[in-house]
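During the reporting period the student researcher (J.K.) took over the structure-prediction task from the postdoctoral fellow and processed the backlog of single-chain submissions. One of the processed entries is reproduced below for the supervisory committee.
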Amino acid sequence: MKSLLKIAGVGALALLALMFVLQREASANDSPSCAASTGLVPQFCVNMPIGTSVRRETAVPLSTVLTERADVRVETGVPVSDVIRLATSVDSAIARVEMVFGRPFTTKPRILIFATRASFRRGTQELFNYSPETAANVAVSYGGVFDAETLTIAVNWQAAASADLPSLMAHELTHLATREIVGQGAVLPAWFEEGLAAEIQAGDAGIGASTRAAARSLIANAPRTLDTTTTLAEWHRAYAEIGPALYAVSAETVRAIEARIGKGAMFSLLAEVGRGARFEDAYQARAGESLGELVARFTTDLALNPTVAVGATADDSGSLSWTLSAFAPNSDVQVRITGEGYDLAYTVRTDAIGLYRGTFGSTTALGAYTLSATSASSHATATIDTTPASEQTRAVPQDRSGLRDVAPEPAPVALVAVDPAELRAYARSAAVAHGIDPDIFERQINAESAFDPNAFSSAGAVGIAQILPSWHPNVDPTDPYASMDYAARLMRGYLTYFGSYQRALVAYNAGPGRLMPGNPNYLPLATLLSDSFGGGETKRYVTKILGR
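J.K. obtained the following structure tokens:
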């Protein structure tokens, strides 16, 4: 049955409210079970059911969202503003995964979004044939599931709404892309499949320093971890005991495979598995070593001496994080922090993998301090520098509707020297990763700053993407790569929301509120593109980029 779904919203939120209620049958499986979980954070779990497919449907009202790249169905209780964010996240995640795999999805990924834990529990029970106990456990513990039998991703919006959606969706979509290559019933080591998804989820930034420290500590104290996580059942048991460090170890091992045989060979290995080969045999044929030899070499190559890792970014209170890793599990460690006029000593206890995390700086004077960590058998030191120059932060450029009311800010002191050709190439790759036209985005960054990372406007906008630091205190506008990556993501969102590059560029230049009826800054598009608005600045900006 189809009927027009009417969504009450304000302003331009109605642009994405064109949906159709679909209560349709979906393939599912007679066999239950969804064990937890995928993701660097326990947000999603992977289900690998077996058995005969049956036809099932759910009574939860799902509506089709008109996205570019996926078959997305959303429960009517999800707010329209969240639907906009979701659509953007799905499209950018699909573009990211397709770029990594070098191939498009065979069919549009099918993603079901349930508004609450209760409806998520009901939907997975009805569509995937989970037992009531399994469905209830999954709904309480996780943000969603990937069902390999139906090749469907189901999301618990109540649990996942606050997460980094593009990254989490990229993780789940990696499972789907992998299964499209190898087949639904093919056998892969669980650590490889989860590690590949975790690596793609982390993106260019890579696994975080704190998580890498946990991985080192895990390998130092349990070097045979990968040998005991080859099946999903083993993986889930290990994850319950170890936590996110298991993803980091797996991702680093996948990275070691890629370094050994190359990305192309790694994906051809998957294709061979899809044709019936064993994963272990396909790897040995390409690498000239067995999988066991790889794992042993990878473990040996790691620097497994106890260390203290210090985070690069202060939290809201001004503290920097620090992490002890590769100490003995469940052991006492004497920590001493010294600086000018400062000396503090206390004892901490490591966890089951020899890890301990702490913070320092919010209650002390700015400056450099030495942290020493000493146990019965180990010692490590590190410097903690709490001065502002050591802070490195990130953010997303957004609405600049009030640009003319913002006082100019001092130009950044540090200058960045980067080859413009390299910056142009990165702009194009960022555009492709987020599913926007690379030619248009390259011209846009050229219009913003002529690819000058040190650009500074009289209104206070800084850097290659012209970000206002006063609006975004957590951003480092002098980092050209982060600025372009997030500017591309923002343009993807504007394009999805406003429907055209012309409007998306107006939103970026003048602020999205200018295009939203009901917003106090709203003006008709014709006015925004006239000589009377801002002296014709926005008109010239759009014309320079689009040529019209």
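The committee noted the following: The chain is about 40% helix and 15% strand.
J.K. will present the remaining backlog at the next meeting.
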